[in-house]
Amino acid sequence: YKVVTTKSLIDMKANGEKISMLTAYDYTMAKIVDSAGVDVILVGDSASNVMAGHETTLPITLDQMIYHASCVVRGAKRALVVVDLPFGTYQSDSKKALNSAIRVMKESGAHALKLEGGSEIKDGIKKILGAGIPVMGHLGLTPQSIYKFGTYTVRAKEDAEAEKLIEDAKMLERIGCFGIVLEKIPAKLAERVAKEVNIPIIGIGAGGGVDGQVLVLHDMVGMNNEFSPKFLRRYLNLYDDMSKAIGQYVDDVKTQDFPNSSEQY
Ligand code: KIV
Ligand code: NA
After folding, report:
1. 45 annotated binding-site participant
2. Which of 1, 53, 139, 206 lies 20 to 30 Å from 21, alpha-carbon distance?
C-alpha cells in the first residue's frame, strides 16, 4: 500500500495482514512513525496526558486536538491519520458531533476520526458518517469515561458488559464505521469480536486475536517510565537514554568541554 486509506485497512483484514498503528502528536514524531512504515497514525486524546501533563484525557480541547492533528498531517506521507474527538465535543447531540467532526477535518487535513462509545453515541456517528467522514469506533476501556469506571482495569470481564460490547461492535459495523479500537478487554472476547465483524479490530491490551495493534508512541519507546501495564512492550528506554545525554550536556557546559574549538565559528 503506497498510501493507506480506510479501504486499505479493510483489505488488510480480508487478506490476513495485521495492521500497525501508533500515536503521534507532532510533526517530527509523525515523520519518523510514518517513514518507519506504520499504517495508521492516531492523534490520540492521550495528548492530554502525554503532551499536556493532565491526569486524564478529559481536559484537552477541540482546538488543541486540531493543532496536534495539523502538525501530524504535515509529517505523514503514507499513513492514514485518525484523530480522536475529545471529551465534550460529540456526546451531547448529533449536530454538535457533526460540527466538531467538520472542524477537525477542515482545519487539520486529517483523514478520519475516532469516537469513544457505542449505542449512546450512535446518532452522532451516523451524522458524521453521513457527511462523508470516516469514523473509527472505540470500545472497552474508554478513558473519557474514567470517572464512570473509577479504575483503569480490564473491562468487559462480566457477561453483561461483554454482550453489550459485542452488540455495539456489530452496530458500529452496520452503520458504516471502518474499524474499531478495543482497549483493555479479555483476549478471548476481542478475538470473538474480530471474528464476528468484517471491519478491522485494532487492539490495545486486547491480545493477539485481533486484526492490528495500537500503542502510545511515548510509552513504547520508553519516554514515560511511570506507566508499565502488562500489555505494554517497551522497545527503547528513551527516558534513561535522554536523561543520560542531557546530564552529560550539563556537565560539558559546566566544565567548558562544550563547545570545543571545532564547534565554534
Ligand atoms: O488516545 C489514545 O492514545 C488512544 C489509544 C490508546 C487507542 O485512544
Ligand atoms: Na484516545
Report:
1. yes
2. 53
